[in-house]
Amino acid sequence: MSVEQVPVQRADFDQVMVPNYAPAAFIPVRGQGSRVWDQSGRELVDFSGGIAVNVLGHAHPALVGALTEQANKLWHVSNVFTNEPALRLAKKLVDATFAERVFFCNSGAEANEAAFKLARRVAHDLYGTEKYEIVAALNSFHGRTLFTVSVGGQPKYSDGFGPKITGITHVPYNDLAALKAAVSDKTCAVVLEPIQGEGGVLPAELEYLQGARTLCDEHNALLVFDEVQSGMGRSGHLFAYMHYGVTPDILSSAKSIGGGFPMAAMLTTEKLAKHLAVGVHGTTYGGNPLACSVGEAVIDVVNTPEVLAGVNAKHDLFKARLEKIGQQYGVFSEVRGLGLLIGCVLTDAWKGKAKEFFNAAEHEGVMILQAGPDVVRFAPSLVIDDADITEGLDRFERAVAKLTKA
What's the CA gap between 165 and 174, in Å, rounded? Predict the structure, then answer.
C-alpha cells in the first residue's frame, strides 16, 4: 500500500504551519552529495549542510545502507529495554573520546538540558542546595527549552516567556577576567561553546578555555562544552575540545552526530554519570535503534584520518577563496572558524545585511547560512567534493558581485 502524496507548495507553509520560521521561497525535494534539487528541478550547491547537520551530505550510501538495514529489523523498543545499535554507538563514542558514559537523546537542546541537569544534580548531591549557579557566555546558543534558552546569552530568544530559571550569569566570550570575576564556590558549572556558532562562528582562544578549566577545578565546578555545532568532525577533529587539548567534564553533541537523522548525545565520566541514577532523567526516543544505527555509520566514516585531514584541507580552500572575494568586493573584514564551520564577518558597510547575502546566493544556485545579522556562515558536508567547492564559490562570487553592484 502506497501513501497518497498530496501536492504541496511553499504557500501552504503559511496556511498550515506555526509561523515561527520564515523558510526560503523554494522547497528542496532531493539531495545527492552536496547538490540539492527543488520542486522545479533547479539544482543548487549546498554549503549549508542543514545547519551543520548533513555531515556526509545527502543520501550518503553508508547512511542509507545503515538506515535501510535497521528499518527492516527493529524501529523502537523504548528504554525499558536496550538495543544493539545504541550499545555499539556508545562503545565507539567512549573509545574515541574522554567519556566513559553516554546518554542518548534527540536534539541539541535535549543534550544540553541533560548536561545542565547533571551539573546541578552533581553539585546538589556533593555540596548541597546552594551550589547551583551556572556561568555561560553572552551571545551563546544552547537550545530552545526554557532551561537551555535561559543559559544561552541572547535575550531575544529568552525574553517573553515569564520568569526565567534563576542562578544563571552571562559574561563576555573570550574574556577570562570576566569569567574569573563571575565564578564562585556557588558555581556548579561553566558552560561554553568551543566555537560560538549562532553567535557568529567565533572560536575560543586557547588561554580562555584553559583558564575556564582551571577555574572549574579550583571551585569544584564542572566544565561543560556545548559541541552541538562543532562536534563530529566539523572542526577537523572528532570534537573541537581535541583541537584545544582542553577536556571538559560533560560534552553535548547533536547536529552532525546523526548525519541528518535526529539524534544527540551527552558524554561524561563514570563518576559524574552515577548521579543520574534510575528514574532521575529520561527520554522516550533517545537511543532509538534507527537513530543509533545511522549514528554508528556516521562515526565509522567521519572518525578516520582521511576524512578529518580532508576537512582541514577543504577549510583552506574555502578560506583562501572567501578572503579573496571579501577583499575584491569589500564585503568581509575577517574569515574565521575551524574546519568546515566558517564565518565571514561583514564589513561596516554591510553590517546587518547577512540575509541579503543568503538571498543573493540562493538566486545564483548556492545554499549558505547566516550566523546572526553580521556573519555569513558556511557549514557544508565534510566530504564535499573539491569540484563542488569551486562551483559553489564561483556561484557565490557571482552573487556577491551582483549584490555589490546593486
Answer: 24
